[in-house]
Each structure stands twice: as C-alpha cells, then as structure tokens.
Design goal:
The protein has a domain at 2-48 and 64-70 and 102-179 and 268-350: FAD/NAD(P)-binding domain. Helix content is 38%, strand content 28%. It has 390 residues and is α+β, with helices and mostly antiparallel strands. Strands 1, 2, 8, 9, 10, 11, 19 and 20 form an 8-stranded mixed sheet that branches. It is built from 12 helices and 21 strands. The structure holds adenosine-5-diphosphoribose and P-hydroxybenzoic acid (PHB).
Amino acid sequence: MHTTVGIVGAGPAGLLLARLLHRSGIDCVVLEQRDRAYVEQRQRAGILEQSTVDVLRECGAADRLDREGLPHDGVELRWDGRRHRLDFPALTGGRRVWVYAQTEVVKDLIALQLRDGPPLLFEAGAEAIEGADTDRPLIRYRHDGRENTLTCDYVVGCDGFHGIARDAVPDTAKKTYERGYPYSWLGILADVAPSSDELVYAHSPRGFALLSMRSPRVSRLYLQVPNGTDPAAWPDERIWDELDARFALDGWTLRRGPVTAKAVLPMRSLVTEPMRHGRLFLAGDAAHIVPPTGAKGLNLAAADVTVLARAFAHLRRTRSADLLDAYSSTSLRRVWRAEHFSHFMTTTLHTDPAQGDFDVRLQISQLDRVAASPHAAAELADNYAGPPIA
Ligand code: APR
Ligand code: PHB
C-alpha cells in the first residue's frame, strides 16, 4: 500500500490532520494501535481555545461542539481567602474558550473519518518507521495478525508521548528539553452539577485544586497529590473533604455527588527539537508535553497539525516546500510560549514540597499582581485563550 501522507496515531493530532488533508484533496492513511472504543473513552483534557474551535469549524467538525460545547468567557483564580475573575473577551479583544471534552472531539473526528475517508485502521500498531531521510519513507505495522508495509511520500508521527515516531529520529539529529514536577493530579469525574459556572484554579496551603466540568450535570475536579499516589488511598469522602478545604471561601459551597472515575496523572514538560527529520514530521504529544495547568496539550496538537496541513496544501498547490521547511520553527514558537505559560501556571499555583514560606509569599504576590494590574491579567488571559495560529 502507498499513500502521500502516512499518519501514525488517531488521537486528536492524527485525526484532525487527516481531516484537514482530506479537505485539501491530499490522500493519507491513519494507523492506530488501539481499538475504537479505547480511543473514544480515554479521559483527557477539556478546554478548547478559540483557534482550535475555529479550525474544527473550518473543516466541518464542529456541529456537535456548537450544540453541546460550553463557551466560557473567563476563569476564576482563588488564593489566600480571595477570588479574582479574568474576563477573557474584555482582556483579549474578543477571544474565549470552550469546555468540550477531548474524547468528544475524538468521537466527532472518527465519525467523519469513517464516513468520508481517508482510511483509518484501528488495531494497527506501527512497529517501525524507516527511511525518514530518503524519498520513500515507510511504516511497518501489524494488522489482523499480519506484518504490513505502508510506503509514503511523508510520515507524520502523531503517536503521543509513548509512541515510536520520536525514537525514529536518531539521537544525533534531535535535542530533548525536559523537566519534571514533584507532584501529580488526582482527577475525578462526578455526577453532580458544577459548583461554579466557570473553572476555578485554587492556590491553597494544602496544595492546588481545580474545578472544571464536562456538562451542566457532570463535574471534573483535580487535586494536587504527591507523585506515586495510589488512587485507592483516596476514598470519595476524603477527596470531597480535601476539595472543600482547598476551595474554601466564605459564602461558597462545593456540591458533592457520586464519583464515576478516579485516576492519578503525572506531570512533565518536554520538547523535542526539531519537529522534523527528513520526511518524518512530529506533531502533538509525540513532540512535546506540557503540564495540564495551562490547558494547552490538545490545543498545541491542533495548532501543529493546522500548520502542517497548510504546508502540505501549499506544496500541492505550488510545488514549493517552503512552508514544510518552516514547519518545525513555526510550530516551536507557539510550543515554547505554551511551555512557558504552562510552567508559570503550574509553579504559581502548586505547593512544591521543598518550597519554603518565601516561595509561598512570591506566589501570592504574583496572584495579587494579576488581580491588581490589567496588564498582568491581560498577559494571563492572552496566553490562556491562546494566540491565532501563525
Ligand atoms: N502505532 C499506532 N498508533 C499509536 C502508536 C503506534 N506505535 N503509539 C501510540 N499510538 C496512538 C495512541 O494509541 C493514541 O491513540 O497514538 C495516539 C496518540 O494520541 P494522543 O496521546 O491523544 O496524542 P495527540 O493526538 O498528540 O493529542 C494531544 O493533548 O490533552 C493532551 O495529552 C493529551 O492526548 C492529548 C494530547
Ligand atoms: C479539564 O477539564 O480536564 C481541564 C481543564 C483545565 C485544565 C486542565 C484540565 O487546566
């Protein structure tokens, strides 16, 4: 089998890329190692930036998002017994964000893909990417118990953090920048109406907490916990009590309800440069990871493949590879901005077990500054709502 663009991975990056290429008349094949049910049920992030919504609309993948997604015009910060709301449209010249779960984006894109093509193979795990520095790269993959080969003009690794594409770039041709954090998130889904209309990011002496949602009836909540925490050590009652303590504010109450999912998520920051080796391109989590405090992971994946799809369309139209050659440097500018913002949000809001009182006073001073200065608030809102795609 031969295709123009071989895509490894059917997460949001691979699926959106396939949709965008299809709309430009470029053929591609998507290989996904898991089955459809697994990919559609995996719990992930839930915030779409304005530019992500714009591109989903442009490619006809936003019908359900426009019906069921919840537009949000702000978030609340809570610290030191105080609260401050950031008004995104006022601070960013009209941009906002949407609450719409990544799993729903993935379901919508899979449905379109299976309806309109191009081919999407589930339970087709890529085992090797070869010839990235030749004119005819290929993907070896296993499907229906057989070894297969997909030859391609280009290969795009959209196979996430644990995929094989990043490792297919020789160590001598890449550099990886990385840092870890001394805490994780315990995330729950609960069948209860969200206790706030907007997201609440809470700094507290007991650690960070985040109130988010999936719908008007389903809450999504997170607690900072030590690395290596066993979710079994957190019975539901203990989780609600701890959330109560961290969000505590006079006149505000947290609604409790049945917990339907519970998991511990580690955090890291990582960037691999460049995001291209010969005819192999990396996009989304395959190339970079952010801690979730800035809500950037899914949005970066969407921005990468938007830039890449435009570059392939430009190549097809003009025979010029200029935009493809610029893909890595164009994407890395946005990636590093998001890395900085995600690190800023994480270290401003979490309690590092090694930090002293001095560091806590600095965090509080930073949060006070956001509340007092329209410039500081605009800087945060501009990063959160995200820039247009370059
Ligand atoms: N062969 C085929 N598919 C693979 C392989 C492989 N060898 N390895 C991994 N995959 C698949 C995974 O099963 C997964 O479906 O690649 C997909 C990668 O998807 P994601 O991990 O969702 O990554 P990405 O599409 O870049 O999405 C961006 O943003 O919210 C964050 O981390 C969150 O998933 C999110 C990401
Ligand atoms: C989520 O709803 O899952 C979510 C929201 C905001 C974040 C991270 C996760 O910063």
